[in-house]
């Protein structure tokens, strides 16, 4: 262990004394991964956040039992081509790195449940991304995405989809087939309009649409019976559809910086709106 810091060596020894399923090397200033990690075939959770890693070794993809891999706040520009070999991976967290693309094998992560890649440089999702049928939580805010897969609607288990701060200008029609969505964020993408099929998202509870260039809302919004929070700040909405006033569970509404003609008194008269910003 001469090549690694004393703190990393201590953490590895401690993990060896335990059952070897969890190893936390976060915040140790690592520039390269210690080879000793490869001697943990039973490893299930590996925490490597807050280091200075610029790349990951290929041998990491041989940790076949790995379920959680946490790499936030590093300097990674890419993932190993063999990342798809981590067939038991359920959570992959990569916030605050410099990743521009995902390898083709990424779509082999069939058990992936939660994918977090905020604040990177991702330009596109790999072909076949929608085959990740177990994906429930997808966080891709503040990247450089210009388009979503046309078949994104095949991610039928998706519950939370966060895409704020990208470069999207249109949304695939299949997106409105994601009927298990509970939270949806498109903030700061100039999408301009929402489909009438928005009303298909019957389980939606939170909808974030700050600064997306909207002039109006589809009347089908009335079908979002479970909607509790709606953030429409910084748009161009002058009139609210009648369907808006049928949202009985809506308790938090932000209409700041919109030319809304409906008076605040009328809006505040809506049942259950506890927090209104206009």
Task: Outline the fold blueprint.
Blueprint: H1 6-17, E1 22-24, E2 45-47, E3 68-70, E4 91-93, E5 114-116, E6 137-139, E7 160-162, E8 183-185, E9 206-208, E10 229-231, E11 252-254, H2 264-268, E12 275-277
Parallel strand pairs: 1-2, 2-3, 3-4, 4-5, 5-6, 6-7, 7-8, 8-9, 9-10, 10-11, 11-12
Q: What does this 3D model show about the protein?
A:
The structure is a single chain. The protein has 278 residues and is mainly beta. The chain has helices at residues 6-17, 264-268; strands at 22-24, 45-47, 68-70, 91-93, 114-116, 137-139, 160-162, 183-185, 206-208, 229-231, 252-254, 275-277. 31% of the residues are buried. Helix content is 6%, strand content 13%. The protein contains 2 helices and 12 strands; from the N terminus they run H-E-E-E-E-E-E-E-E-E-E-E-H-E.
Strand order of the largest sheet: 1-2-3-4-5-6-7-8-9-10-11-12
- Structural classification: mainly beta
Relative helix content: under 10%
Q: So what's the overall shape?
A: elongated
Number of β-strand runs: 12
Any low-confidence stretches, pLDDT <50, length ≥5?
Answer: none
What profile does the largest beta sheet have? 12 strands, parallel
**Beta fraction of the residues?**
5-15%
Average pLDDT taken over every residue: 93
List keywords for this structure.
single chain; 278 residues; mainly beta; 12-stranded parallel β-sheet; 2 helices; 6% helix
Give a brief outline of the structure.
This protein is mainly beta and 278 residues long.
């Amino acid at each position: 262990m001469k090549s690694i810091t004393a703190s990393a060596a201590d953490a590895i020894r401690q993990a060896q004394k335990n059952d070897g399923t969890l190893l936390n090397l976060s915040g140790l200033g690592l520039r390269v991964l210690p080879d000793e990690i490869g001697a943990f075939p039973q490893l299930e959770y590996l925490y490597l956040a807050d280091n200075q890693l610029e790349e990951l070794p290929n041998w990491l993809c041989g940790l076949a039992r790995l379920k959680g891999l946490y790499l936030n706040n590093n300097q990674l520009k890419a993932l190993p081509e063999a990342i798809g070999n981590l067939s038991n991976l359920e959570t992959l967290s990569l916030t605050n790195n410099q990743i521009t693309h995902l390898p083709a094998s990424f779509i082999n992560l069939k058990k992936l449940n939660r994918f977090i890649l905020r604040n990177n440089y991702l330009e596109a999702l790999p072909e076949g991304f929608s085959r990740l049928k177990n994906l429930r939580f997808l966080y891709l805010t503040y990247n450089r995405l210009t388009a979503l897969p046309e078949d994104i609607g095949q991610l039928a288990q998706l519950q939370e989809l966060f895409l704020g701060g990208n470069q999207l200008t249109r949304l695939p029609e299949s997106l409105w087939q994601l009927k298990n969505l509970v939270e949806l964020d498109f903030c700061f993408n100039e999408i301009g309009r929402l489909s009438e099929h928005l009303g298909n998202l019957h389980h939606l509870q939170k909808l974030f649409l700050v600064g997306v260039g909207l002039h109006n809302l589809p009347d089908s919004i009335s079908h979002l019976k479970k909607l509790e929070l709606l953030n429409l700040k910084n748009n161009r909405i002058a009139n609210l559809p009648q369907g808006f006033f049928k949202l009985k569970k809506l308790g938090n509404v932000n209409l700041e910086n919109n030319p809304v003609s409906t008076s605040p008194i009328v809006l505040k008269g809506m049942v259950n709106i506890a927090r209104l910003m206009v």
